[in-house]
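Subject: design request, 425 residues
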């Protein structure tokens, strides 16, 4: 739906006499044979013109010429071709001037992201010094910066002088890693050298932006490749706001062993082990006090409370799995009922063979690992006892018996509770 909407926007702009192309990542992905998540349009029409042409369009970055156009149940970003200069804050340009497609391509971060495509397949201006390629079913790809050749060669290269590109926005160094890992590209040596030389400036980027980039890397199956690149380019320390451990020559084996669909929080837990306990077995990892490292990461990556708790639960859950053979049934069920128990099991699987644990866990889940308790504090009160510290101990004991299958119904549970109360008295 978004492709059809973007093409219609290009057509309507063209019919009104304005150059307009599909732009950026959607073109890159289509050249690679991938399905883009969304489509963007770049045009010579200035924001006021775009706003006047499309009903319900709204400016979302008017100073940068960006308008959001709702069409066909999609929302398409339409940006006016522009040049930029300045970047005194290492993120945003100090000045913007509207221009043409050729100059717009020069401001972009990497050559593979500087491509345009004309789905209407019109001739480009004869004065334009551009490479073109027909892409069946998509139109003519227009390349002013060598992006097509770099995609063919599987190379990620900064547009122009890489030191200038990374000086304009330091976050581009992390974007280089994300694109290279995700798309299986080799980073051009000159671009690599510029990243290493500028890595220390990454600490000037907001922690929310850094956390967003790292989260996107860790959420993909190529997470281990991304982590290796971060280390080799010396970006890991500034990104994570921590010293570089001496043992980082180890490959990120925990990350590499995770399932492809592992969430970013589980991947972060695995990466913590790769960085701080790379040779630890399950028992050693379960005994590791991860809390100081996680506190640093929360600050470095601006983790939400929910994400921090998910990482902590994944690591804390290793303790039960390390002692699994010695645990009674009720303890196993309690472990499986905890939040993120499956994440802990997947994390344990990166260190040892957990097939037997997984089979046992599946069997216990079929039985039910968190049934409603058969007795409550109201039953103790009805027996004439006042609430106090012993309540939890007594109720936990009955619930453990319920989980172990020793009591199967409410009457049996009440009888067990009376015995415990009598023994406690």
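Subject: RE: design request

Done. Sequence follows.
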């Amino acid at each position: 739906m978004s492709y059809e909407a973007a093409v219609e926007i290009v057509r309507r702009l063209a019919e009104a006499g304005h150059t307009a192309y599909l732009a950026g990542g959607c073109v890159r992905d289509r050249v690679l044979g991938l399905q883009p998540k969304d489509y963007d349009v770049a045009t010579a029409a200035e924001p006021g013109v775009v706003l006047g042409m499309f009903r319900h369009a709204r400016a979302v970055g008017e100073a940068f010429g960006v308008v959001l156009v709702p069409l066909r149940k999609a929302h398409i970003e339409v940006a006016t071709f522009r040049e930029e200069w300045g970047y005194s804050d290492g993120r945003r340009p100090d000045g913007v001037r509207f221009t043409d497609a050729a100059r717009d391509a020069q401001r972009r971060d990497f050559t593979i992201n500087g491509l345009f495509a004309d789905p209407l397949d019109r001739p480009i201006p004869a004065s334009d010094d551009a490479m073109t390629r027909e892409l069946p079913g998509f139109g003519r790809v227009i390349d002013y910066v060598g992006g097509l050749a770099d995609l063919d060669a599987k190379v990620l290269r900064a547009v122009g002088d890489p030191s200038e590109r990374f000086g304009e926005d330091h976050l581009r160094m992390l974007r280089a890693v994300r694109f290279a890992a995700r798309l299986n590209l080799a980073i051009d040596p000159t671009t690599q050298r510029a990243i290493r030389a500028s890595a220390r400036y990454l600490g000037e980027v907001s922690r929310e932006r850094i956390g967003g980039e790292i989260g996107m890397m860790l959420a993909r199956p190529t997470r281990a490749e991304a982590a290796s690149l971060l280390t080799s380019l010396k970006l890991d320390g500034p990104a994570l706001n921590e010293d570089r451990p001496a043992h980082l020559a180890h490959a990120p084996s925990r990350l590499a062993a995770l399932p492809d669909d592992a969430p970013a929080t589980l991947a972060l837990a695995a990466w913590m082990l790769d960085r701080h306990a790379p040779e630890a077995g399950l028992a050693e990892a379960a005994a590791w006090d991860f809390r100081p490292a996680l506190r640093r990461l929360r600050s470095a990556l601006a983790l939400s409370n929910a994400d921090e708790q998910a990482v902590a639960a994944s690591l804390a859950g290793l303790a039960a799995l390390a002692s699994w053979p010695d645990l009674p049934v009720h303890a196993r069920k309690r472990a499986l009922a905890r939040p993120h128990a499956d994440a802990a099991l997947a994390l344990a699987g990166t260190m040892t063979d957990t097939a037997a644990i997984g089979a046992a866990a599946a069997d216990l889940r079929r039985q039910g690992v968190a049934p409603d308790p058969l007795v409550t504090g109201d039953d103790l009160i009805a027996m004439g006892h006042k609430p106090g510290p012993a309540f939890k101990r007594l109720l936990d004991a009955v619930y453990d018996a319920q989980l172990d299958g020793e009591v199967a119904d409410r009457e049996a549970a009440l009888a067990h509770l009376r015995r415990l109360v009598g023994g406690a008295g």
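The chain has a mean pLDDT of 92.
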